Amino acid sequence: MKIPRKSSSSNGDSNSSSSSFLVQHATLILPYLTHTQLANISLTCKSLYKLTQIITLRRISDASRTFENYPIPFFNTNNNNNPPYSYFLYTPSLILSHNTPNYQPWGAGEGAFVISDDGSVRFGVGCDFEGVCENGSVSFGVGCNFQGVCDDGSVGDGGGSSVISPIPPRTIHDVGLVRFGVGCENGKVESGGMSSVISPVPLRTVDDDESVSFGVGCECEGICDDECMCFSDDGVDGIGRECGLDCLCGMECGNRVSQNGVNVRVKIVWCGGGKGWGLFANQVVRKEEFLFQYAGELLTTTEAQRRQQHYDELASRGRFSSALLVVREHLPSGKACLRLNIDATRIGNVARFVNHSCDGGNLSTKLVRSTGALFPRLCFFASKDIQKDEELAFSYGEIRKRSNGRLCHCNSPSCLGTLPSEDT
Ligand SMILES: C[S@@+](CC[C@H](N)C(=O)[O-])C[C@H]1O[C@@H](n2cnc3c(N)ncnc32)[C@H](O)[C@@H]1O
């Protein structure tokens, strides 16, 4: 019996069109996957390998997913087995836990991928540099490093297209208002622990002896000056004040310093030595300059306690970093205590990478409330001049009450050996 031989050209066409179909649809789905899921998919075929490489490089180039004014790159040069980036969802400001997205694409870019008829993936005319270019663009270079069996049965050994994926223009996305924090006494903010809780601050009303109230904004036109009713370093409760939603001044007003996202260039660096990732200055920062707020999910205390327990379990089974922060602010009146529980573990901003230092580090924290906002933000300022490439750190708190306190690797001369911890 004569078995008809398939024509090689028609076979090739069908292979390339199914490959193209696969890649085109993969570009829609892959940006939603975690690092581990991407790594698994990258082993399946050469086209998907290339696509996952592009997504990975774009992710490495900007942890903020374009939410911030500047790209915030990851650096993991230790040649270790850790992933090249840390996977989390991004929010530039506080959000309520029931409003958090389940999925957020990362690394797709706008018009990033051009898929040829043969299923190969390109983006415009690429440079040969493999990595993150100085302008923040990501280059895939020439060739791929696929180590497995390629679509056509050959063993992957490089070759392929130059790919460059420029970072889209920065846009600030307005997600909401929330911050992370630590406990405090007598109007002073303290830090420590990591979890989410929310204690609503009572809305203030206008008293006879009080000219400023929450919910009433200033009527300054354009930019406010020292006369503005919102201008106050410490506010009425030891909490900083800024103009806000209820004010007539615009976003260019100088009294909105902490409302425009991350204010300085920073980078996320793999520190090793038991600390994991850390946040570093990528420029000189002057003393008292605002850097960023602590953004994440604002939780009820009950939810914060539940999550803390879960995170403790995960940590006891292996390396796991939670970013649940509890801020307690005892108001000067002594009648009330403000408690903020901010969890940046699943969704947060770059402040989630700031490590603890027993000597207080180079950052100070302060609660700042915008006029009209229900909750204050936990804001980070430089407590001293900071050099480029210096690690950013602050003290998580003084209290070390839990028996399962973890080892501290801050390496400061005043290191106490364990990380601050207390039950949430
Ligand atoms: C807010 S996260 C900081 C970022 C974290 N290093 C990471 O890799 O994602 C807090 C966690 O970082 C680790 N960490 C922070 N400061 C540390 C220190 N001085 N020594 C050891 N681990 C530290 C602890 O695991 C802590 O629970």
Compact overview of the structure:
With about 425 residues, the chain is α/β, with parallel strands linked by helices.
Strand content: 15-25%
State the fourth-level CATH superfamily of the largest domain: SET domain
> Would you list the SSEs in sequence order as H and E?
HHHEEEEEEEEEEEEEEEEHEEEEEE
Q: Assign the CATH architecture of the largest domain.
A: Beta Complex
Radius of gyration: 25 Å
Query: Which structural category do the helix and sheet elements fall into?
Result: alpha/beta
**Which parts are unreliable, with pLDDT below 50 for 5 consecutive residues or more?**
1-12, 110-115, 121-214
Helix content: 10-25%
Number of strands: 22
Give a quick account of the main beta sheet: strands, pairing sense, barrel closure.
6 strands, mixed
**Tally of alpha and pi helices:** 4
Hetero groups in this structure are: S-adenosylmethionine
Count of domain modules: 2
The rounded distance between the terminal residues' Cα atoms is 78 Å
**Overall pLDDT level:** 74
State the CATH topology of the largest domain. Beta-clip-like
What is the CATH C level class of the largest domain, in words? Mainly Beta
* Approximate shape: globular
Domain SET: 264-397
InterPro entries: H3K9_Histone-Lys_N-MTase, SET_dom, SET_dom_sf
Main location: nucleus
Enzyme class: transferase
